[in-house]
Amino acid sequence: MYSILGGSNALASSSKMTIPARRVLAAASSRAQKRSFSSTAPAREPSNARNLQTQTQTHIPPRPDPIFPCVDAHSARATRVQHRRPPFLPAAHIPPAAATSQGKTVSELSASEPGAGPEPAYSFPTGYETYHHSEPFELSYSTIPLPAFDLAYETWGTLNADKSNAILLHTGLSASSHAASTAKNSAEGWWEAFIGPGKPIDTSKYFVICTNVLGGCYGSTGPSSHDPSSPNGDPYATRFPVLSIFDMVRAQFHLLDYLGIDKLYASVGCSMGGMQSLAAGWLEPDRVQRIVSISGTARSSPGSIAMRFAQRSVLMADPNWNRGFYYHGQPPHTGMKLARQIATITYRSGPEWELRFGRKLRDIPLSVSSADGNPNLEGRTPTGARVPALCPDFLIETYLDHQGESFCLKYDANSLIYISKAMDLFDMTEEALADLPFQSRPRAAEEHQTHGRQRQPLSLSPPAAYLPSLAKGLAPLRDIPTLVLGIQSDILFPVEQQREVADALRMAGNHQVVFYELGGVWGHDTFLIDVANVGGAIRGFLH
Amino acid sequence: MYSILGGSNALASSSKMTIPARRVLAAASSRAQKRSFSSTAPAREPSNARNLQTQTQTHIPPRPDPIFPCVDAHSARATRVQHRRPPFLPAAHIPPAAATSQGKTVSELSASEPGAGPEPAYSFPTGYETYHHSEPFELSYSTIPLPAFDLAYETWGTLNADKSNAILLHTGLSASSHAASTAKNSAEGWWEAFIGPGKPIDTSKYFVICTNVLGGCYGSTGPSSHDPSSPNGDPYATRFPVLSIFDMVRAQFHLLDYLGIDKLYASVGCSMGGMQSLAAGWLEPDRVQRIVSISGTARSSPGSIAMRFAQRSVLMADPNWNRGFYYHGQPPHTGMKLARQIATITYRSGPEWELRFGRKLRDIPLSVSSADGNPNLEGRTPTGARVPALCPDFLIETYLDHQGESFCLKYDANSLIYISKAMDLFDMTEEALADLPFQSRPRAAEEHQTHGRQRQPLSLSPPAAYLPSLAKGLAPLRDIPTLVLGIQSDILFPVEQQREVADALRMAGNHQVVFYELGGVWGHDTFLIDVANVGGAIRGFLH
């Protein structure tokens, strides 16, 4: 006899099944195509808690050993990774044995993408340009400057003669410079539908620049980069300094200097890119003519810090993380998978999953074979009945599992930690800005004339206590037309924070603030998906 | 010279500091009392991205090794755990060497609770009664019954002569039977303020029973319990069968039989207890005279499954978990800590943390010494300047860290996994209920007369597609007065789900549904904290 939960041991002992169990399994088999959990159902006639116990035999055989394919996946991945180098690791850091098979990357080992669903493309950038900054670069939180840095970037469109049509595009946490396909890299970018001739950011009119942020792992200097002070040529790892969003943007201004671009037509960004977009306006108000901040914030909230803290915690607890010094060994792929699962929860919304997955179970073919020729019993009994498992079962679980698995070797764990921390540290209240070692570069014509009547706050609730300080912090942006856009289903950068940015700008005297709130169920990721509404707002604002 | 990020290595090399660094540190020291991050601030005069790079020297010394006290905490805990048994482990399962020091439990090793904040008490139950069920117990998802089970329970008040004043109280995921202090156990219970003479659940009128659920680890049979089919007397571990909420409640009805209680004055529960409360009404509509469901649901949503999946994933990825077979070794305390951090995020709300913590940093004394006599440099330079760290820094981070640390050895990891999974599986739509091997026990007088006009749905949005099926599933509860209460800031059991329960009951013909929505910032945990509003609603309904 065996449990409906049985694994391979159960199959081996199936010849010992008692009659009642056989009857159950036969009944279960007839319902095997149903997309719901089958029950033991020895008796379908009305029964209740008080009489069920009398229906069964007294001899209880041992329960079979459980199976956990979702846990096995971690060790299986570890075995695969040993033979192929993670693509974010510079070849110089790979021990010779591993480097011999560098033709393929581990990303090719990921499970295939489920067809349905609006997931953005995630591809490794190739064919980007690199700006090399050879002089020491001061940082917000470290007395030791970065001795030099690289910044990977890509461009779309043509810079016009007077260099007045440049748009600097800022990315979210883990994105590369590959926002859209180029002649050098035809792969779809993360904002493919938004950038191109005739698209919301129209490259027949604008020259668009996108960088991999400082601290990243897609061509720009970050923790995985060579530490010039290391005698062995080791990467910085966690000797890399803590960065600020302002440091990232200051590095981008050096690139603009190099490109000879004095004024930006616009600074555009979503999520962390929205923070950068505001930071650019603050650092160099005279060089930024328009700001777009979508699903960003001017002050990271404790709620969003909590979500990022949970991700960093699981990552840093992975023994492979090894205090950040994993570049000669296995990267913390399990921690990265777990962190990405958590992140994905914050990127979407419950209502989306309700519409997309509901309580549907993953599909398990009635007859599947494992490599050793035995039936794969995960989630089904040998007769095909569907039973609950502790590993992913509901489609929402397989979705999160897949998102984690797809990402866990595509990005450097230390880059994730450092950039995530930089987001936590971002705070444009006057009080916090005063602690930075650099200040806003004032305009030539300084005195600002407040004109018109005071605007009412957008929030229906009493404004946050820090709003006046935020307004003072954002004062340098008061003459820059700014588009602020938020999503009502966003749980990571809630729409209240978007109203706050708009309110603070208007309190600072900015009379050119455009503010939109979007509905829909896509949560924080709306900016990657909703071309009609997000793209339309950008197009209208940039015109 | 050294970085402002420096650890103990940094101190050792401080005599080699260059003059600019010394100047920086002196400046930083003068601001050390500020509750914000200090900057490197070599020059506080106006500067910008383009000229900062010229202010610094070209020789770049090696960066110091980073320190990670939050990671060290995991291995330190592992060392401590080796000498003291986790309290949820039955003594029989402890190897002899470890059992010698069983006088103290690891809970005593937890960090002290921060004084501020409305955290409920969490204490190990002692002095509970145990109901032993000696006959096999059929289960929802397994062909093998449980051969027997124990159910730990406590009671408050006095059962009256006709046994008509009994209230069955159902717990949340990880709570014990110790809902309030008793003569046998004077420690505060998890609902201390709600239960007692004159309190919302008035024990001068009612006889209150609370159990540790089946699957738990506080006296009831669960994965950590002895598996009678094991020749070595091992615990079930993950050979334990997957349970349903209905199984838990059916076990409770056996306890009621034993106590001679035929009818419940009320079935009351919050969170998972709300699920159980509804399940009790469905299983035995004739035995349940009133239902209270607070922050529960009649159908787990994919959003809440996602949150619980993330917790189970980090727990099962802990190597100590060992597929659930850890009872002879170290429990997965790191995975438990990480899981609890995630859980805590879902129990509260961003607005609460904004009010409670804002962006405040943890307090680090200017002069603290480590065990070896060296200054503790975590978070401060030797001169006292406050710098960002990758380990917990903001109060919200230390709060989550502390919640995880306090919990990680107080509860059995397998119990968490099984009960969390049972919550995911809970679904009272007609379609899902049809798959259970037991059905609702119909009332004697079956035909229900629908009277009065059709109620309008409480939701402002179009109702979910499954609402009619939920109404059919809840039909057996149509004659039971039911209190449904939800919290607008709850992200785990959103208020929409509470409206759904109320709507489905009313669609089923229940004309005695009381529905409240509460504001406030406490999120899901409101039921533990808000005595005035939650307690008041219960008192008014039970009267």
Automatic annotation (TrEMBL), chains A, B:
InterPro entries: AB_hydrolase_1 (IPR000073), AB_hydrolase_fold (IPR029058), HAT_MetX-like (IPR008220). GO terms for molecular function: homoserine O-acetyltransferase activity; serine O-acetyltransferase activity. SUPFAM superfamilies: alpha/beta-Hydrolases. Residues 166-524 form the AB hydrolase-1 domain. Coiled coil: none annotated. Residues 48-59, 99-110 have a biased composition (Polar residues). The keyword Chloroplast does not apply. Pfam families: Abhydrolase_1. GO terms for cellular component: mitochondrion. It comes from the Eukaryota. Residues 26-65, 89-122 are annotated as: Disordered. One of its GO terms (biological process) is cysteine biosynthetic process from serine. Keywords: Transferase. Belongs to the AB hydrolase superfamily. MetX family. HAMAP family: MetX_acyltransf. This is Homoserine acetyltransferase. It comes from Calocera cornea HHB12733.
